[in-house]
Amino acid sequence: MSGALLWVSALLCPDAQVTAEQAVVVEVLTPTEPVFAQQLFPLRLQITVDQEFVRTQKLQAFRRPLELPVQVEVPWLFGDSRILVREPSAVEEPQTPLRFVLNGAIVQANSVHEQLHEGRAQWVVEVERRALVREAGILILAGPQAQFAWTTGFSADLFGNPVPQERHDVRRSGAEATLTVLDWPVDERPVPFGGAVGRVELRVDRQEGQESSPALLTVRIGLTGDANWETMSAPDLTALAGFHLLGQLESRTAMGLEVRADFSREATAGAEFPALAYPFLDPGPPAVYRMARSAPLALTALPADVEALKPPPEPPASPDPVHPALPVLGGFALALIFWTLLRIRTRIVARFVAAPPPTESLPMA
After folding, report:
1. Whole-number Å distance between alpha carbons of 254 and 89
2. Is the pTM of this model over 0.90?
3. Which value, to the nearest 10 degrees, does the dihedral of the CA atoms of residues 15, 20, 22, 28 take?
4. Which of 228, 339, 213 is nearest to 282 (CA)?
5. Cα–Cα distance for residue pair 250/240, rounded to 1 Å
6. Segments of the chain with pLDDT less than 50
7. Which of 123, 248, 253, 257 could in theory staple to 223 by disulfide, Cβ–Cβ 3.0 to 4.6 A?
8. What 3-state class would DSSP assign to 78?
């Protein structure tokens, strides 16, 4: 990928004392050359500031004083459904600390250096990130927006505190950036391919002290290098001859991908854990598919009298599963029948008690 970068600029506050190029310029720098889907690329937010302008004409628009009182909005810089932006693993503190507001939070610039432009001293402030685009296509990124306040000069109040003569609020929008994202090459693409793009190294280590039986084996599989650990698939461990995968746990960081896997060793496993291979796309140039490989892992042979551990068989499915509501409905129906019979019996008894007994007529003498 070419190191050339696209400058997307938002010009801010062209004061009479400085030219448009000497005031404040906010830029998003992205590659001009196409990148592959899920390939990491450098992404930088750069603010070029005229030092004299900041010292003499800036206004603190925030409660907390900042060395660079500028508020910058780049919503997609923290990632969205199209782009994933990785936070830096380590930020080197610049010799000249400059803080400003980015997406509503105070941030410290990753790097600050000075330069001369047409005889005027400037600070070049950068916030660096690495990003990847999830899918191939044409990605259009909204331009940065920046806002700050400035004045033409200051006067002093009764207590000698500086008071701005007049205030100017400035808000500008930069141009949007267009990034071309290529799909993975079809020619010679491995099957299966887990979507790893970059450079990958593979290692396999045994995790000692975890096995409760000679037939159990716990290994750590580590993928390191420089690749898209957040989005790639983990190695497929379900088809290793002589080893039955019981379960696995993945851990993903900006430094790599690690898989902790538990296996049951079968009698045919032999005395080593097989070498693994994991394909990845090296973006080059030229772009080429490569294979990261691990060395076989030596093991102690499985004793002949130890059987491999296998998960218990699943219980057979019921041919006619009973709906969970049927027992409730059946109980309700029985209660209704019992209540009906009770009511009928009560009515019969009530009628018998209420009716007077029949009297016989005796003949009179």
Report:
1. 7
2. no
3. 120
4. 228
5. 18
6. 1-16, 19-21, 308-309, 359-365
7. 257
8. helix
Dist. CA 210–CA 39, nearest whole Å: 36
Best CA proximity match to 10, nearest among 102, 73, 79, 103? 73
- 3-class SS of residue 22: helix
Q: What's the chain's Rg over C-alpha atoms?
A: 38
DSSP 349: H
Q: What is the pLDDT of residue 305?
A: 55
Cα–Cα nearest to 302, from 211, 178, 225, 232? 211
pLDDT for the residue numbered 16: 41
Helices (H), the chain: 51-57, 326-354
CA 186 to chain centre: 27
Task: Measure the CA–CA gap between 217 and 248, rounded to whole angstroms.
Answer: 12
| Cα–Cα distance measured from residue 86 to residue 92, given in angstroms and rounded to the nearest whole number | 16
Instruction: Say if CB 117 and CB 166 are below 8 A apart.
Output: no
Cα–Cα distance list, 129 to 32, 41, 95, 242 (Å): 16, 9, 20, 44
pLDDT at 365: 39
> CA–CA separation, 195 vs 193, rounded Å?
6
3-class SS of residue 278: strand
**Amino acid 119: pLDDT:** 84
